[in-house]
Amino acid sequence: MPPIALIFTVTGAALWVISTYFLGWGSRPAEGSGPDPLRTVGVAALVAGLVDIIQAVYIVAARPDPLGEQAVVLSGLVGFYGLFFTVVGVAAIWGMDLRPVGNLAIVVGVVPLFWWNFFAGGWLFRSILVVWAVAFLAVTLTVYARLSPRALGAILLATSVYTFFVPPVLLALGRAIP
């Protein structure tokens, strides 16, 4: 099995931090003229993106069992998410325009749905693809002021728990991912 626990926990923690920022939890600078918390959120996103990209390269290079040649397909998906989190991190750290992030979110939300057959035989990963499509489209809607930041925060918080924490918790408990 590829190192999915690492991908899930690191990226899930970053998404948790992103979601709490949009919910307004610690989203304002400390009293006075403290540093912008969005920069810290950006660091978490950047680290997650880089971990995902490194893991995607590992998956395609090592082709761990039981994937074999299918590792190439999985690495593409992991790399897709890695790119997104890396771009979010860089944009947040340096205060860049988020509209390109919103545009990227459309592609990263829709194209992974074509991995549906890759996850045949398991309902959890398929449902994760759907949840992620909703979450990424919510990012786009928020960037273009069609959805409130708090609503996005709630969507991303639920997404972090369901899509990133449930799978590794199941594995840690010795259970198979359904």
UniProtKB/TrEMBL annotation:
Keywords: Membrane, Transmembrane, Transmembrane helix. Signal peptide: none annotated. The chain crosses the membrane at residues 6-26, 38-61, 73-94, 101-118, 124-144, 151-173. This is AmiS/UreI family transporter.
